[in-house]
Amino acid sequence: MDGYSAQLPHHIDTAAADCLDEMHRFVAADRLSVAAIVGYEASRVTPEDRTAWPAFHNTQWFAALPEGAGVALGCGAVNTSKFALEVSSASMMATVAASKPQTLPEGVTCAPIDEKRWLISCPVPEAGAVYAALKKLVKGRVEAYLESASANDDRLGPLNAANRHFGAAYDALARVTGKPAETVGCGASLLKSPAWAQKIADALGASITLCTEPEPAARGAALWTLERIGAIGSLEALAASTANIFNPVGKKSMNHELLERASRIRLLLMDVDGVLTDAKLYNVPGPDGKMWETKGFDAQDGIALQWMNWYGIQTGVISGRVSPATEERARQVKMTYVYQGHIEKIPILEEICAKSGIPADQIAYIGDDLTDVVIMRRVLLGFATANARPEVKKAAHMVLAAAGGSGAVREVCELLLQAQGKWPEILKKYEIE
Fold this sequence. Notes:
Blueprint: H1 16-29, E1 36-38, H2 47-52, E2 60-62, H3 69-75, E3 82-86, E4 92-97, E5 109-114, E6 117-123, H4 127-137, H5 142-148, H6 157-177, E7 182-186, H7 188-192, H8 194-204, E8 208-211, H9 216-228, E9 242-246, H10 256-262, E10 267-270, E11 282-285, E12 291-294, H11 299-310, E13 314-318, H12 324-332, E14 337-339, H13 346-356, E15 363-367, H14 373-376, E16 381-384, H15 390-395, E17 398-399, H16 408-419, H17 423-429
């Protein structure tokens, strides 16, 4: 072996020299050459130490990395394109930025790693403990229990709270650095419990890729040291090993921040063609021999819009086209506002706000085309259908799984009703447990 690196634990600072004594005994016995040690500054190495540790003669000494930096680097979260999620006695979410942010949300901290990297992190300290408590409560059968437990099981309360805390941490970091392309999770608990990893992914509203490196903190310290001494060109030179990917499902495909916004919605507006319909227009002959334009609407969208009416959430359409079919559909589903023939939609939004007394920050909008973007930028929550133009998806707060005319409106209605605590009542009405 040409080199050896390690990071000493922070909590044994007073016994660090004793740990180095033990480390020296092993490496000297195997005649190893130690390139670097992380966790013990060169200024602390005394002449007596150098005499006692001849195997460390050419060693470079580095101070300990900030708490959590080793994990982030060891998981591959070496820049803001990746977030690291750790479940342990010091659970957290973190990423590594190239510069120090000017402002930080509450609960987010920033610490320098070196002259070109900053650790941006948010602790979730209770996560490891609540999982251990649940494991003790169900006598170790955590995975089977999580797979079968009902959503309202009281024993899941602390774990669900930790999951929400992870979701809030993800949102807070995203406000600083933007949403990552990937979130990498590590920790024995996650590797042992796919069901819990899935629940955290649901809370984040983002996929989690599990890291299978056995000691990501030590690995991160080693990679950082190897880069510092020039043994590797960059931290990306050796990719972390990964396993399963958990994609978010269900109502929590909306992250914590969007769920909070959804809980405040009092009015849902939408475009018609490409949202309530698949954007196809059908011309059929009328009784007078003239051609009439008609459209196809989704029945599941229809009942969902009526549910919204039950709970006092108003609905309406703003469409660039004029169609009797739209007027009739709006009547059937009890829409409050029907505006047709309006390509310029901002004045209509302002008129609706004035008539309803509902401000834009309590309105959601569903769109699919360029004319919808101006509304999305002015309301609290903008949704893009799966068939929307790329520019619309970029402007939206959330891109739906369903396309227009194929359940997109139903998807939004369910999300809003879930966020406002009404969904269990609907399920109960239809005798669904």
